[in-house]
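Give me structure tokens for this 974-residue protein.
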Amino acid sequence: MPLLEPKPEALRPGAARSASPDRALDGRAAGTPEPLRGELTALLGPEKVLWKVSDLVKYASDASPYRFVPQVVVVPEDIDDISAILSYAHGKGREVVFRAAGTSLNGQAQGEDILVDVRHHWTGIEVLDDGAQARIRPGTTVMRANATLARYGRLLGPDPASAIACTIGGVVANNASGMTAGTTRNSYRTVSSLTFVLPSGTVVDTADPAADELLAHAEPRLCEELLALKAEIEADAQLTARIRAKYEIKNTNGYRLDAFLDGSTPVEILRGLMVGSEGTFGFISEVVFDTLPLDRKVSSALLFFPSLTAAAAAVPRFNEAGAIAVELMDGNTLRASVSVQGVPADWAELPKETAALLVEFRAPDEPGQEAYERAAAAAVERLDLVAPVASVTNEFTREAKAISGYWKARKAFVTAVGGSRPSGTTLITEDFAVPPSLLADACESLLRLQAEHGFDAAVAGHAAHGNLHFLLAFDAAKPSDVDRYAAFMDDFCRLTVERFDGSLKAEHATGRNIAPFLELEWGPKATELMWRTKQVIDPDGVLAPRIVLDRDPKAHLRGLKTIPEVELIADPCIECGFCEPTCPSEDLTTTPRQRIVLRREMMRQPNGSPVETALLDAYGYDAVDTCAGDSTCKLACPVGIDTGAMMKDFRHQRHSPREERIAALTAKNFKAVEASARLAVAAADRIGDRLLETVTGLARKAVRPDLVPEWLPEIPGAAARKLPHTSRVGASAVYYPACVNRIFGDPDGHRGPSLPQAVVAVSARAGRPVWIPEDVAGTCCATIWHSKGYDEGNAVMANRIVEAAWGWTAGGTLPLVVDASSCTLGIAHEVVPYLTEENRELHRELTVVDSLVWAADELLPELTILRKTGSAVLHPTCSMQHLGDVEHLRVVAEACAEEVVVPDDAGCCAFAGDRGMLHKELTASATAKEAAEVNSREYDAYLSANRMCEIGMDRATGREYHSVLMELERATRP
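Here you go.
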């Protein structure tokens, strides 16, 4: 064991705990039992079998209120692996559940036996016919697919609120729709073809002209029985009419029986049945969508009403006017959304009875937009709107920022309301539809029913389509609360079906939540046909049992998860998974959601249990060490949960007093440390990479991998010992070269001025000269200590840099320009909690400006571009995202290059200062997709604005990245 290896005990929860009823039992501590583990390892290979108890626990939760710990998790790479898993399950009598993003709200992504992760290794999009169609793999998120399609002026029909995280496989398998899809733009209507693997292992490509012939040869019984079911349904006129009527409104409850009416061959029937089948009929390995036009002329309004029923009553007017979206939000939803960044703070003061409609029109051109706006104005004239708080305007706008804010509040419905629920309570998200003409009546009935059962729920929904969502919170550890929820569900389901002839699941699919109520909605004849369809396609019941069909009337009460309290920063988490696609470690170890899920399981365990001990043993590396600490999870989370900050605090908790003292000492003596580091880098240039890799590798084994960086060949030579000479007299700003730019030099192939020289030169050229203080050596943004959780050293440097900056800028008279985005973020924001009260006052007087903003806003308007490079690819850093500087990077780059590309897969590189040298596997994993996209073609320039991130991208791509400020200097050099 390395000398300074941290003790897992440091993170053991301290408070006395009683065992939760849904905890993982002691027998699970050893992970996957034999022979299951050994047999799957032999079948697939050890890298595709996740067997530790920490692996099983982190996959046990999804966005739903249910929790089931699988026996094993497997990670297939291709269809051959899928077929092998299904064959094994058939032979051993085991069950299989497929899981992609885990954003489903009804437990569809959870299994109790073999859980198959189909998010990893299953991403990619191919644009067809100039964007008219797109071939997409199932692990691709909706947002990622639409980012590619936007270049062609197209988008997908389904647009769920979870588009940032939900994947194509889950969207099709659940027939998820969203804000605008309704019944005409959902997956059932816009999927052109599918490739899928049946439970038997047979692969079907519905686009293949010979597909029916091939299927008849491989599965004659299946073809015969599907056609027999079709004939039986079509022979029953009453049943046929009932099926057609059920899909006039949104409906994802049960199987798509209309597939038997719409399809004329077995393959066509299967294509329809697979949509909305929730993984119970097979694995969808590829989808070809018919895409839709991306109408870019948008007009939106957020209109406020005195009550939910008044808002619902206004919906038909906007439907008649041609609105593509009419979204409903009640008072609870509006007030809870103040936790979302950008939402007006005065919404917290809205009366509880208030409701709002988010109405949007989209047109392809200006005349169309004007026509829609006239129709909208006519509809609004006849409404009695209210303005309970100052921020309410009740006006239509074309302003993109305002419209984005409206949608941000609406899409945060589940997470924002869920985040504000009482601590320790479980969140249930219900989803139903009624004929749109009955929406107001349904709202009134729902509110009355909630009150009868003691729930103060939040309500929102796609009002244009009669589709409502509401949230209930209760304590799943209390039998009385579970009984109250059960009674409510019985009454709610009867109300929806018997009074409104509605759908018990409009777009979230049946899942475990509504399976017991399927027959209530569909009746015995249609329900029995669904059971028979399942028997025909999956006769051995291998795939996802109890997900859609379950005869247990209390199945929806089984597996409800408790939500034990965890650290305050993470306690609001509802495990929605929105954070996961942004996380640099998602394909390596754990995601932010999984870090919280694992922590909650520790809290479920009695102190010292075998499961708790096993979780702690794995948590150090899987959760704490391999967290980049970039906090992009905070940006993706609608309620701003910063799991990165929690991991930094855990790092602090693991430090010994001696380590903290040493870290503080380096901060106090940083001038000498900085000089020594520059000398070491210079010496390394002469020693050679191979020897340095060997030496640092040995040191890491002896001391601790999380303390000793590994030498990487991509590390550049040393920076010049002296910074450029500048004058304070006449300076427009103080220029602060970050310590990384004072230690590390330019890329090996760079010819021209260094970054500090470039910033000084281009600023002077624009008539905005900058001054570099002579005493910058020994100062730092404090990120070095902050990222590692060294609080004492962080406080030392944070206060030093603020005091120095205040003096350099003459008390904030001049702006402080910083040439590394992470350092800008550190000085502008991250140092604040560690400052003394006096220095917080000084900090308030500072204006900290990132060099990108300085260049885009202050320099570019005064510069003449004399030459441009041909093409440039950009790496926007996570710090730029936090600062809101990504667009500034693009603006500066577009001034320097004829073509500028931001990769669709651009994300945090996870180099994170020196974390990429401590855990190079983290950066390799985090950058894999972006690097593949970058290397798919040649560029003339590879640009960013943060030296360590540039080194990380150098390593990932084999290219040489440099600051866009250096490129700007070259473009304007006389």
